[in-house]
């Protein structure tokens, strides 16, 4: 039988998360096990190669587990089907490793597809692979990613994005979502679903990245007029937080306040207040026993109906579904 296995090269980085590497590898490995059970597909599937980007084959992950790579990326002479950049460690994120990014840029045209997990998207962007494309990365790094790479159409809401033959995924666990999507592309939904069931995960995970990160990055506004008003607004969410009232707190005219606020935050005061109310309501849903009606009033979101509408607009999930998902992992015994 001819050799039909697709070569998947996973490139780990010093200091990256172990799951960035192991998650996709487990998806492709489980696919091999399922395919092996059918004589018609026994010689298909994936060959997984862990390749170091340079400076030694031993990669220390942030969890303290050391990965020993098969070879260096520069030593790969065989055709690569799929290349996955398995995140970036802090050292790679903060420093410009031009040799590695040059290799990515040169190898990309020879690949059937390429993908990144978590902040591995920074490597693809620095190599120019993402210019003009839609892409995602971990929500915590979305602002920095967009600032550094204005040519990329950043959307950190989905768990993963496919643009042509380029796949990017969000947070660490999103590497599983990305690998399952690649598997479904190769062998269809039935095999992808079989693998998801073996791993006890969703084939298509419900929800969006926006449900995991805060709508307002408080550090982003620390030295702005919004930052100076943040604590006061948080304790007065059930009150009138119109431009007039906010301006009064800062001893400014409403017109000048609104102008400065928009310039500093790129948000109108009304949009900032709405996001703050949603973020605060989320914490109450996660940590308190207050009813959704009580939370809606306490956070200035009006009725339960209006609170649901605002949640769906910002988080694409209802307050009740959000509470059920994020309340606690330690359910009481019944």
Automatic annotation (TrEMBL):
GO molecular function, one term: DNA-binding transcription factor activity
Organism, as annotated: Chitinophaga solisilvae
Protein name: GlxA family transcriptional regulator
Highest taxon of source: Bacteria
InterPro entries the UniProt entry points to: Class_I_gatase-like, DJ-1/PfpI, Homeodomain-like_sf, HTH_AraC, INH-QAR
Pfam families, alphabetized: DJ-1_PfpI, HTH_18
Keyword terms, alphabetized: Transcription, Transcription regulation
RNA-binding found in the keyword field: no
């Amino acid at each position: 039988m001819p050799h039909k296995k697709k070569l998947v090269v996973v490139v780990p980085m010093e200091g990256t998360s172990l799951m960035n590497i192991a998650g996709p590898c487990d998806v492709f490995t489980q696919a091999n096990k399922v395919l092996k059970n059918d004589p018609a597909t026994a010689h298909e599937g994936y060959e997984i190669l862990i390749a170091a980007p340079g400076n030694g084959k031993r990669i220390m992950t942030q969890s303290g587990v050391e990965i020993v790579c098969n070879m260096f990326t520069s030593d790969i002479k065989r055709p690569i089907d799929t290349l996955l950049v398995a995140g970036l460690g802090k050292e790679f994120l903060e420093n410009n490793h031009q040799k590695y990014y040059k290799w990515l840029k040169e190898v990309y045209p020879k690949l059937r597809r390429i993908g990144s997990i978590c902040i591995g998207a920074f490597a693809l962007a620095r190599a120019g692979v993402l210019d003009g494309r839609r892409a995602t990365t971990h929500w915590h790094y979305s602002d920095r990613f967009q600032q550094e790479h204005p040519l990329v159409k950043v959307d950190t809401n989905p768990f993963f994005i496919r643009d042509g033959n380029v796949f990017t995924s969000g947070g660490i666990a999103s590497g599983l979502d990305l690998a399952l999507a690649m598997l479904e592309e190769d062998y269809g939904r039935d095999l992808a679903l079989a693998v998801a069931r073996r791993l006890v995960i969703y084939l298509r995970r419900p929800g969006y990245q926006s449900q995991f990160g805060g709508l307002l990055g408080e550090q982003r506004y620390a030295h702005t007029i919004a930052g100076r008003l943040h604590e006061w607004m948080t304790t007065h969410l059930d009150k009138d937080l119109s431009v007039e009232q906010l301006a009064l707190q800062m001893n400014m005219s409403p017109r000048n306040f609104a102008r400065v606020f928009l310039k500093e935050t790129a948000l109108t005061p009304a949009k900032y207040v709405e996001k703050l109310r949603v973020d605060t309501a989320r914490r109450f849903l996660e940590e308190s026993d207050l009813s959704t009606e009580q939370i809606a009033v306490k956070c200035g979101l009006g009725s339960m109906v209006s609170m649901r509408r605002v949640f769906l607009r910002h988080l694409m999930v209802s307050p009740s579904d959000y509470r059920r998902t994020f309340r606690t992992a330690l359910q009481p015994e019944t």
